Amino acid sequence: GGVTDRPGDDFNARGDVRAVLETHGWVRTKGGDNEYWRRPGKTSGMSATLKDRVFYVFSSNAHPFEANRAYSPFAVVAYLEHGGDFSAASRALSAAGFGQSSSDRTGGGHSEGGADISHLLAWADDIEAQIERVPDPGPIPDELFEVPGFVGRVMDFCLETAPYPNRALAFCGAMTLLSFLTGRKVMEPGELRPNLYLLALAGSGAGKDHPRKLNARVLFSIDRVQALGDKFASGEGIQDAMAQTPCMLFQNDEMDSVLRQINRDREGTKESIPATLLTMYTTAGSVFPLRRKAGKEQAGVIDQPHLTLFGTATPKYFYESLSEKMLTDGFFARLIIIDVGKRGPGQRAGSLRDIPGPILETARWWSNFNPPRPIEGADLRSMHPEPAIVPYEPQARLLLDDFRLVTEREYSAGEERDDEVWKAVWARGFENAAKLALLRACSENHEHPVIGVASVEWAIRFADHQLRRQLFLAAEHVYRSDFEDHCKQLVRVLREWRARKGDAWMPFWRISRKLKWSPKLHDEVRQALLNSREIEYEEVSSGGRPSKQYRLTF
Question: Hey, is 506 helix, strand or coil?
Fold first, then answer.
């Protein structure tokens, strides 16, 4: 008796995927909730993670797995032991005792009447394997907020003094501070600059003011407060400010309205705020052409503009504004988006007046640093600086080259599918990783920075998480029709329920309170999601009208 599981589902729930990986030469290098695994033939670094029974592969040399793909335990078995044949994998698991009655696992894939149904179970598993789902990578792992040196010290002080400490917000503040300080002073060998556009998703009262105040205090202490900006009045206003001060840190708490401009700007106005920010970003290594003003013969340019953005937005309005147009916009594609989560427990706030000496010493060092010029004329350094090149360690360069190939392959896949969102997301992956690796190296050793293996591995993991998060947001929130939007709304409601209640069924009456649709629309959405095997549905008799219940299948 009992409920019969499919072999793949059963193995996903209780199979030993670690043993399968180890049998095929994979090595676990770090335990815990988020395990690190190294592929066969590699002697250092990591190639994949295993978290919540999802095996996520980063490496482009981990055959038969593809880079930047998530695999269930059943899929791991299918690829490693059956050459990707899910039907064969299902039959083998059934013979090994998986997929039988949950109360009596001795039937070898037979029904209660004794009929062999393993071929039907295999067919179902094979179909399931073909359903594409973009997994939610979840919040950024805490270890990715660990940056040695300057960034770490700024974060520690921010957390010690904040009324509501938040590691993600402290990280955002510290990274943008370093991005500003290194502006027009360093670049990596490919001439990418350390300018960052960082967007923190934080609700009201989450503590987003504190890291901004700390950054302002540091700039005041080193006599650079004139380089601090806050709100964007217009694209023209940004240009005017940067023309006066070509290296600036903007800390904007109204990014919701800036992002909404992308959707409203149907004509692609050059003077819009997003368009201006995009051009500033892409011309950090060249010149930004200023608009011509009335009464002036020449428009002028900004040489190597370095604009660092620390923006914040409310998660609710951010998600509501997501659209295919926004996700494919050049400005949005360059944002590093960090969801800071809920507000944590409070503490007695400390003073920002007594900033630790090592923080100010490093900040002043960067402020005073002028890279040696290949030509004479030290007075020209501020007008046309020649940034110092931060070199790569040879192995670090190779790792980053591997990641470039991954991003290029994924971009090509998007071209073949004519998927504009996919292309936009992967187009910026390598660039973001290189910038992050450069900043980590400058944080670790400001006087003699070198981009090492540790910096590149960290940067690739961070950038990869951002890529997966953007793809998940696209799958979750961007729709091409009203009906698709309704389907995604129900999936989101069920996902929120599962986060609180686990695998418990969600009563329909709770769903109908959140989604006030007509009975016909509820029926149509339910049937569509049942057909795509994204939900389960049952009606339970309780003496009166049957109780309707829903839950997710993935």
Answer: strand
Q: How far is CA 241 from CA 286, 306, 366, in A?
A: 18, 12, 22
The reply to whether 231 and 375 lie within a common domain is yes
pLDDT tens track for 386-439 = 999 999 999 999 999 988 988 888 888 788 777 788 888 889 899 999 999 999
Distances (CA, A) of 192 to 144, 303, 400, 407, 427: 22, 15, 13, 17, 15
| DSSP assigned state of 56 | E
Residues 6+ apart with CB under 8 A from 184: 193, 246, 247, 304, 306, 385, 387
Q: At what angle do helices 209-221 and 357-368 cross, to 10 degrees?
A: 60
Strand ranges (DSSP E) for 301-357?
301-303, 306-313, 335-339
Domain shared by 242 and 266, yes or no: yes
User: Cα–Cα distance between 69 and 59 in angstroms, integer?
Assistant: 10
Among 385, 412, 438, identify where a domain stops. Answer: 385
Whichever domain contains 509, its CATH number is 1.10.10.580
Q: How far apart are CA 258 and CA 274, in angstroms?
A: 7
509: left (phi > 0), else alpha (psi -120 to 50), else beta? alpha
Examine residue 31 and state whether it is found in any structural domain, yes or no. yes
Per residue in 4-34, is it b (16+ CB within 10 Å) or e — as a string? bbbbbbbbbeebebbebbeeeebeeeeeeee
- Number of structural domains found in the chain: 3
Q: What is the pLDDT of residues 482-532, one digit of tens each?
A: 777 788 889 989 988 988 888 899 999 999 999 999 998 899 899 888 887
Structure tokens at 424: 């936009």
| Last residue within a domain, chosen from 97, 130, 163 | 130
- Regarding whether 77 and 20 lie in a shared domain, the answer is yes
Q: Which distant-in-sequence residues (6+ apart) come within 8 Å of 380 by Cβ?
A: 373
197-201 vs 287-289, strand pairing mode: unpaired
Across the beta sheet with 247-252, what order do the strands follow?
Answer: 228-229, 247-252, 306-313, 197-201, 335-339
- Pair (39, 86) in one structural domain: yes
| Residue 185: domain span | 142-385
**114 and 256 together in one domain:** no
| pTM summary value | 0.68
For 50, the enclosing helix (H) or strand (E) is: strand 48-51
Side-chain-side CA neighbours of 70 within 13 Å: the count stands at 20
Do 328 and 232 share a structural domain?
A: yes
- In the DSSP assignment, the letter for residue 552 is E
Nearest to 286 by CA among 309, 298, 302: 302
Strand partners, 547: 540
C-alpha 95: how far from its chain's center?
40
Separation between Cα atoms, residue 81 and residue 23, nearest integer Å: 10
**Which candidate, 532, 538, 535, 537, places its Cα nearest to that of 130?**
532
